[in-house]
Design a protein that fits this description.
disordered N terminus, globular, alpha/beta, single chain, seven-stranded mixed sheet
Length: 1126
């Protein structure tokens, strides 16, 4: 049993030999015996020819009969091997196809498997042809036997164990001359023709003279010796695929996801995913020519093995060269081999410079690397002080060596050349890193599969959300009412149409479809019938007839559906389902991001390997930044400098944990400054889950570096106008677009006035077009025009701001933009699909977040028990742990940093947060950036940390699942009233609580208080008060924060959630005041929580109170003493 191409499958040696068109040892020995016997018989035959005719016949008949039996015996032996070889090939074909399409397969491994797939497919087609060859040989033996042609029998050669080179079959690449077309070829008399379009094929063949590459595409159904060939496919394989050269593609059609085209005078169909365009924001137009690389094809070049249920006969191509692991060095990596080791190498492909090198296995710790090229295997090491690979062993095998295709240029040199003088040390360092990364990935396949499963589960989550939130269905039993011979009607009662799920009914969704002018009934409405045989609902009418259905809602909500349903339905009771599907842009964009990720549609292929196997990632430094001195601008803390430096030097990925008040925005602004001052052509994406975070960072950057923002940096803010900060309104996409069109129109009019007679007509046409575009609503303009103008607008915009989901808008080609660096703020609050949207579009990603605060915000629907029943993995903290947290815990230390100095909170609050929430394994990672003696204290209330004990009672409002506490709400209003009386300046106040019902109650109490004191001028006017839930207030801050605990009995699992409580405690700048039943909260059980944090908070508040009282008494005693002395 042999292991082949690094796959977890074993096949017989004869299968391996067949794949690589090699004879087994047994076949070689049997063939030698038959040839010797045949030579002996032929010699005897020549001697017998001199005998009289009767003597010759007596001698020839038994000899011919004996040779016939041996020929048939050998033929049956060869025929017997076909079934096990076919079984082995089928097994390999399935295995390779599965791994090619597997989510866990890296882009580099997939490229190697592509060639293995073609080789196995060729072996399968060759095996079918071999059966025909055996049938042909057996037929020839029987024909000669029937005619008693003893001389011809003796001259028959033994059956070959492999398909003869002269035998044609589908997928075979042959080199022929024009004189050989349509004429019998040597030995078997096969004829090769071009079939239809002969003239066009001949035109393609002319440049090749007498060496025309032709791929056999099939055989004639009527003549076994006639075959059809294609010059286009032969030239594509011979001239482009084998030497990895690009081919010209003529675009025939383009949409948002892929570009269709042809090559070689429309003979070969190609599909190019938009994600594999060099310039993804520029959509090519029909007729345009692109240079592309075939990257997904079968042996006959008429199918893409990565696409299931492919309708067209097209292969996949890419504008990007074969994927690289991020190697920045284009210098060759030298492989030095002693000449004597090459003496036994007869494989000519090994010495061919275009033959691909593969890394089979490696052990970097032992400094051993197993390389493969063609059929040759080499054992190499990296010599001390030698900038190259030194080969110690060379073995020529019987089969092609396939492993991980190397994304480097390897140059074979003999030991007569001293490669130390060539100084290619950076190349060998990159090779060592690549080999180590591959070894780690291969050794952790289980973890890689687990990570893939985790990401695949998000597809189920999104599907569940879409069905639950965007679809309403009514299942009903009825008898269709016949209107005439063609039409009948289905009736749904008003009660069924009004039945609500999650607060909405099918009737509500139907009315929404009718109100929205952008929605069409045939796209959103479905009627289905239950099929008991399939045990599923099936469409009631074909898709092409959906528009013919009439939906007639009555005033009371009932619905009648009239259409041409099957006659068999009439007068028969049936079960039907009516569905209303509303589009969800956000969910659709996230689903697309997941699909793009699993299909390798990403700007940086190396990121997929990192995301699937973060434990195995070996950090790589960007050579541009590795030896570059960073000139800091402004005052940064030590940890900020360390984090920014790490992020700049990382080649692929960097993570920064930014606890509250540590200056995440300051770090982002510094990152932007460093990136643009080092390279003004750098394209940077700044995204976050929330618009406010994006706007805050952009505004800070533009305020801090106005000169840079007006010269080298061109900002574009992508998002809805109403959600973008007013300060950035001039940079918002729609505003920029309007300004751009206005400028175009003005320039066009100027050109009309200045144009000479020759250019006047063109200038007028251009002016008319710009005026038309400027004055016509976007929904009336054709998409190509919009995208072309948007492409010009976006061409020089090198700093884009957007939300994660907003980045995937198709408007103006935004969803095709690619970036050098993506800075993703609040990464801990984003889900996996949301994060993937920017990650797919960048060459390098910097994620900034804090996994010690609240996890991603997900739909409340997913926290329902019904969702957990459908998706049990939701019970496994699936929603409580962010992808940022998983990533941060698994990535090596060199790829992550922590901002450790906080400047927001008063020292006492900072110590509380640092010790309770940012201490792991007794190591604290958050400290006060300002010493207690230097902190500018507020005199609003005496202490920074306070607890107001309230003896109230928790209640649940009618119809709500949330909780409230009237006593606490009233205590907070009284407290704020007293604070307002002491406030000398305007003060920001936040009142936060874990419960939505308490938030509403506090708002009501505050409004009532304001209304009752309106005549006094509003005693709370000096306080800017915001009331919110803890979850809603994350990312915000206030001078004074009041926290209402609400609970007075029961469990505290929700209240003691460490991440939520961390957010609550870290919002205050100067004062943090808790309101709650101190006695209950101090003694309450913790449930599943780590500890009772309220006990620790109460203890700290008590100590601060005693300390402050003692200090006040001491100051009073000193004043009295001075008064007496005076």
């Amino acid at each position: 049993m042999w292991q082949i191409i690094g796959l977890a499958v074993f096949v017989a040696a004869k299968v391996v030999k067949w794949i690589f068109n090699c004879k087994t040892e047994e076949e070689i020995k049997r063939g030698e015996r038959l040839r010797e016997e045949h030579e002996t018989i032929r010699q005897e035959f020549e001697d017998a020819c001199t005998k009289p005719r009767e003597d010759f016949v007596r001698w020839a008949k038994p000899k011919a009969d004996s040779w016939r039996k041996k020929l048939l015996e050998a033929l049956n032996v060869h025929r017997a091997k076909i079934a096990p070889i076919r079984e082995g090939l089928d097994q390999l074909y399935k295995t390779v196809s599965t791994e090619i399409a597997a989510d866990t397969t890296s882009p580099f491994r997939r490229l190697s498997l592509q060639y293995a797939f073609c080789r196995i497919e060729d072996a399968t087609l060759r095996l079918h042809a071999y059966e025909d060859y055996l049938d042909h040989t057996e037929g020839e033996i029987r024909r000669v036997t029937d005619r008693r042609e003893y001389e011809a029998m003796i001259k028959l050669d033994p059956t070959e164990p492999l398909l003869p080179d002269e035998w044609l079959y589908r997928g075979k690449l042959v080199i022929v001359s024009l004189d050989e077309i349509k004429k019998p070829l040597p030995r078997f008399g096969h004829k090769l023709s071009f079939g239809r379009d002969t003239d066009r094929q001949l035109a393609l063949a002319m440049p090749f003279a007498d060496e025309i590459p032709v791929m056999v595409t099939g055989g004639s159904k009527h003549r076994n010796t006639s075959f059809y060939g294609c010059v286009a496919r032969g030239a594509l394989y011979y001239e482009h695929i084998i030497p990895t050269e690009p081919v010209e593609m003529t675009v025939t059609y383009a949409n948002r996801t892929e570009i269709a085209g042809t090559a070689f005078d429309d003979f070969v169909r190609l599909t190019l995913p938009v994600t594999k365009l060099t310039h993804k924001h520029i959509l090519p137009i029909p007729g345009q020519t692109l240079l592309v690389y075939p990257d997904a094809f079968n042996i006959t070049l008429d199918r893409n093995p990565l696409v299931q249920d492919q309708k067209g006969r097209a292969i996949g191509v890419s504008q990007l060269p074969p994927p690289q692991l991020g190697a920045s060095y284009q210098h060759p990596l030298f492989v030095r081999v002693p000449e004597k080791l090459l003496d036994d190498v007869s494989d000519s492909e090994f010495f061919n410079p275009v033959t691909q090198w593969n890394l089979l296995t490696s052990d970097p710790e032992k400094n051993q690397y197993l390389l493969g090229k063609s059929r040759v295997r080499l054992v190499a090491t990296i010599g001390e002080g030698v900038a190259g690979l030194c080969v110690e062993q060379v073995v020529q095998t019987d089969h092609i060596q396939v492993g991980h295709q190397l994304p480097f240029t390897l140059t074979l040199v003999t030991d007569t050349i001293d490669i130390r003088t060539l100084h290619w040390q950076p190349a060998i360092d990159t090779f060592r890193q690549y080999a180590t990364q591959i070894a780690l990935n291969d050794g952790r396949e289980g973890l890689r599969c687990a990570q893939t499963t985790f990401m695949r589960r998000w597809q189920r989550v999104l599907d569940y959300q879409r069905d639950a939130e965007c679809m309403r269905a009514v299942t009903f039993d009825t008898i269709p009412a016949a209107l005439d011979e063609r039409l009948s009607t289905l009736h749904i009662s008003a009660e069924q149409m009004r039945e609500e799920t999650l607060g909405a009914s099918a009737l509500d969704y139907l009315r929404q479809v009718d109100r929205d002018t952008m929605l069409r009934r045939e796209h959103c409405l479905r009627i289905e019938q239950w099929d008991s045989e399939r045990f599923a609902f099936i469409p009631a009418v074909p898709d092409r007839h959906r528009a013919s259905l009439d939906y007639e809602p009555a005033d009371d909500g009932a619905l009648a559906i009239r259409g041409q349903f099957p006659k068999s339905w009439q007068d028969a009771q049936g079960r039907y389902r009516f569905r209303v599907q509303l589009p969800s842009t956000a969910l659709k964009r996230q689903q697309r991001a997941l699909e793009d990720f699993f299909h390798d549609r990403m700007v940086q292929p190396a990121l997929k390997d990192i995301l699937l196997s973060p434990q195995s990632y070996l950090p790589v430094e960007d050579p541009f930044w590795a030896g570059r001195e960073i000139h800091w601008h402004g005052k940064l803390s030590p940890s900020q400098r360390e984090a920014v430096s790490m992020a700049l030097k990382a080649k692929h990925l960097a993570l920064i944990q930014g606890p509250p008040g540590t200056g995440k925005t300051t770090a982002i602004v510094e990152l932007l400054y460093q990136l643009f001052t080092a390279n003004s052509n750098c394209r940077v994406l700044l995204v976050s889950q929330q618009n406010t975070a994006v706007d805050n960072a952009l505004e800070r950057f533009m305020q801090r570096f106005p000169q840079l923002a007006q010269t080298a940096v061109q900002v574009i803010r992508i998002g809805n106008r109403e959600k973008v900060s007013p300060a950035l309104s001039n940079y918002q996409f729609d505003q920029r677009y309007a300004q751009f069109l206005k400028r175009l129109s003005q320039d066009a009019r100027k050109q009309v006035l200045e144009a000479d007679e020759e250019r006047y007509d063109i200038a007028c046409q251009w002016s008319t077009l710009t005026d038309y575009v400027s004055t016509t609503p976007e929904n009336l303009l054709d998409r190509p025009t919009l995208e072309e103008l948007s492409t010009v607008l976006l061409a020089d915009k090198n700093l884009a701001g957007a939300t994660c989901v907003g980045l995937s808008t198709p408007k103006g080609g935004v969803d095709q933009l690619a970036f050098d660096v993506a800075i993703i703020d609040e990464a801990g609050r984003a889900t996996v699909p949301e994060l993937l949207i920017p990650l797919l579009r960048c060459r390098k990603a910097i994620l900034i977040g804090d996994h010690y605060q609240l996890p991603p915000c997900v739909s409340p629907l997913l926290r329902e028990e019904s969702a957990r029943d459908v998706m049990p993995f939701l019970r496994e903290a699936f929603l409580e742990t962010s992808f940022f947290e998983l990533f941060f815990e698994q990535l090596p230390d060199a790829s992550k940093a922590i901002l450790k100095e906080q400047y927001r909170m008063a020292p006492e609050i900072g110590d509380l947060v640092g010790e309770l929430f940012y201490t792991r394994h007794r190591v604290r990672t958050l400290f006060n950036g300002t010493a207690a003696g230097e902190w500018a204290r507020s005199e609003l209330i005496p202490h920074s940390l306070n607890w107001v004990s309230v003896k109230g009672r928790q209640t649940r409002p009618s119809g709500s699942r949330s909780l409230c506490n009237h006593a606490e709400a009233e205590a907070i209003v009284r407290f704020l009233s007293s604070v307002a009386g002491c406030a000398e300046t305007q003060t920001d106040v936040a009142v936060i609580t874990p419960y939505a019902a308490q938030k509403k109650l506090i708002l009501d109490k505050l409004n009532t208080y304001r209304a009752g004191h309106a005549e006094q001028g509003g005693t709370l006017d000096c306080l800017t008060i915001k009331v919110d839930t803890v979850d809603g207030f994350q990312g915000s801050e206030a001078d004074l924060v009041c926290y209402s605990t609400v609970r007075t009995h029961g469990g505290l699992q929700f209240l003691l959630d460490k991440k939520r409580l961390n957010v609550a405690c870290s919002r205050a700048k100067h004062h943090l005041v808790f309101f709650g039943d101190a006695d209950f909260l101090e003694r309450a059980g913790t449930g599943d929580a780590e500890e009772n944090y309220f006990a620790a908070i109460l203890n700290r508040a008590h100590r601060l109170s005693l300390q402050t009282s003692a200090q006040q008494n001491l100051r009073t005693q000193r004043r009295d003493r001075y008064r007496v002395i005076a």
